Amino acid sequence: MGTKGREIVGVDLQELLKLLNKALADEWLAYYQYWTGAKVAKGRMRGIVASELEEHANEELEHANQLVERILQLGGTPILEPKEWYNQTNCKYEVPSNPNTKVLVKQNIDGEQCAIEVYKSLLEFIGDKDPITSNMVLDILSDEVEHEEDLEAILEDLETPVK
Ligand code: FE
Ligand code: FE
Ligand code: MG
To answer: From the CA of 26, how far away is ligand 3's center (Å)?
Structure first.
């Protein structure tokens, strides 16, 4: 990023980069949790659940992409080693060891709720001091809100008794 572009960032840059890297760790773990969940899913509404999880996986990967682009633009270094994902994550990784669709959906709802908290507090941290990052975070947050909504709708269907 150019001199002026960096100059207008009014937050503590090291702290911002740390928070963006933590979010990056979350996104990779969310990606893998969705991606692998889509593969192993079994039980009611398997096809619908698997395709929703797969779609969300792709969107989490796109979030990771957005975060890395901004980290680099700010002169930072994105996490280079996967083992750091576990060290830096806010939202942890919920192992999809039970392939039941309802269990998977619930685990991913937890993940989305955590992500919503993370991006909301990142927005608060930035305030009006870095509109570019703020705009990106808001975009990602909107997706996470939509993810939670989609999964809660699926859970509602899964919990509707078969007549
Ligand atoms: Fe995400
Ligand atoms: Fe999400
Ligand atoms: Mg969706």
So the answer is: 18
User: Could you tell me the domains of the chain?
Assistant: 11-159 (1.20.1260.10)
The pTM (predicted TM-score) of the whole model is: 0.96
Backbone torsions φ then ψ of 48, nearest 5 degrees: -65, -45
- The protein residues having their C-beta less than 5 angstroms from ligand 2 (an ion) are 144, 147
Report which DSSP code applies to 83: H
CA of 65 to the centre of ligand 1 (A): 10
List the pLDDT tens digit at each of the 163 positions of the chain: 788 888 888 999 999 999 999 999 999 999 999 999 999 999 999 999 999 999 999 999 999 999 999 999 999 999 999 999 999 999 999 999 999 999 999 999 999 999 999 999 999 999 999 999 999 999 999 999 999 999 999 999 999 987 7
DSSP 15-30: HHHHHHHHHHHHHHHH
Q: How far is the CA of 156 from the centre of ligand 1 (A)?
A: 22
β-strand partners of 64: none
Ligand 3 centre distance from Cα of residue 81 (Å):
29
